[in-house]
Amino acid sequence: MQGGVRKRGNIWYYYFDLGKVNGKRNKVEKKVGRTKKEAETALRKALHEFDSCGSILNESDISIADYFDYWYNEYVLINCKYNTQINYNRIINNHIKPALGIYKLKSLSPSVLQEF
């Protein structure tokens, strides 16, 4: 994601594009302060928050079993029908957790998945 800073009068602003909706470009522009450094710092922070929006988990220290529990509670129970919930729960508890539950999310590799 790209963004930039600019000066209008004595005030610095940062801006970045959110994407296109219905063929129109959505852009965020915020007034920051009186120095370019403040604007660049605020831009980096805003881009980081935008990129990690909705991401609560840090994949470096969570196991596969914990991630699937989180995913089941936060996504499946909210967005899926009852029978789908039952089937996902069965697959997770009977197949995925016994085989892959001990691995950390960051250490999961294609070779481990291929073996599974």
From TrEMBL:
<dbReference type="InterPro" id="IPR011010">
    <property type="entry name" value="DNA_brk_join_enz"/>
</dbReference>
<dbReference type="InterPro" id="IPR010998">
    <property type="entry name" value="Integrase_recombinase_N"/>
</dbReference>
<keyword id="KW-0238">DNA-binding</keyword>
<dbReference type="GO" id="GO:0015074">
    <property type="term" value="P:DNA integration"/>
</dbReference>
<dbReference type="GO" id="GO:0003677">
    <property type="term" value="F:DNA binding"/>
</dbReference>
<dbReference type="Pfam" id="PF14659">
    <property type="entry name" value="Phage_int_SAM_3"/>
</dbReference>
<feature type="domain" description="Integrase SAM-like N-terminal">
    <location>
        <begin position="65"/>
        <end position="116"/>
    </location>
</feature>
<protein>
    <recommendedName>
        <fullName>Integrase SAM-like N-terminal domain-containing protein</fullName>
    </recommendedName>
</protein>
<comment type="similarity">
    <text>Belongs to the 'phage' integrase family.</text>
</comment>
<dbReference type="InterPro" id="IPR004107">
    <property type="entry name" value="Integrase_SAM-like_N"/>
</dbReference>
